[in-house]
Amino acid sequence: MHRFFIKQKDIDGPLARLSGEEAHHLRTVRLKPGEKVELYDGTGNVYQAQIQSKDKAAQLIITGHTMLSRPAPELSIGQGLLKGKKMDFLLQKCTELGVKTFIPYTSRYCVVTPPKESKSDRWQKISMEACKQCGNPFPLDIKNTCLFEELLENTNQYATKLIFWEKETAGSIANFSTLSSTPSILALIGPEGGFSEEEVKMAVAAGFTSLSLGRRTLRAETATLSITSILQHLGGNL
């Protein structure tokens, strides 16, 4: 099933209109008038639709509608900036795994400069393309890149706050049997160089629990995928 994103203002009763890049996408795929597609508006509305025309502004007829809601707990990932295309990869995979919010940040051991606005726009497109591929109607809410200290100052809305540190010896994710009763989770994951001890202490002072993943040392992007998958499993969302 081919999927496209549509703005609410482009839906008028049973009629829908795709424009811009989404209309171009529709024109380039091997679909004919009369064939069925799905439309996402990014807020959980899923529309079943039938292609009427593939002109510059594609016209569709809506034949069905479903409203989906995000299951609890809602998972947010705070990610230290990574080098190369690793951030692109993580944005795609976090979308596939049902993460709600993605918060990129810079910290002591980050070696990457904050992205320009053009890269932030590209990140949003990556998430939307991942939604189409995996059937997730909720693209990531990608926040502006911030400082680690700024991130810590704006976390009161999260019920469960975790920071993953490779030098942690007391706490482990293995100690959790479930996280299904918490409404929201924020997990902080470091860049390639990890966290400094001072940063972990700051996070703990801000209400975070410091955890390790066990005895294995993982690459930064592997750690993020592992943590995301484990937390979604513990929350009953995998």
Written account of the structure:
With 238 residues, the protein is an alpha/beta fold. The protein has 2 domains: 3-67, Ribosomal Protein L25, Chain P (Beta Barrel), CATH 2.40.240; 74-234, Alpha/beta knot (3-Layer(aba) Sandwich), CATH 3.40.1280.10. 28% of the residues lie in helices and 27% in strands. The protein has helices at 20-28, 86-96, 117-134, 148-152, 197-205, 220-234, and strands at 3-5, 11-12, 15-18, 36-40, 45-53, 58-67, 74-80, 101-106, 141-142, 146-147, 160-164, 184-189, 209-211. The strands form 2 sheets. Strands 7, 8, 9, 10, 11, 12 and 13 form a 7-stranded parallel beta sheet that branches. Strands 1-4-5-6-3-2 form a 6-stranded mixed beta sheet. Helix 2 (86-96) packs parallel to helix 3. The model has no long low-confidence stretch (mean pLDDT 93).
Report mean pLDDT, rounded to a whole number. 93
Question: Architecture of the largest domain in CATH?
Answer: 3-Layer(aba) Sandwich
Q: What fraction, in percent, of the residue positions are helical?
A: 25-40%
Number of strands: 13
H and E string: EEEHEEEEHEHEEHEEHEH
Look at the structure and name the CATH superfamily of the largest domain: SPOUT methyltransferase, trefoil knot domain
Gyration radius, rounded: 20 Å
For the record, give the distance between the C-alpha atoms at the N and C termini, rounded to a whole number.
22 Å
Strand content: 25-35%
How many helices? The count is 6
CATH class of the largest domain: Alpha Beta
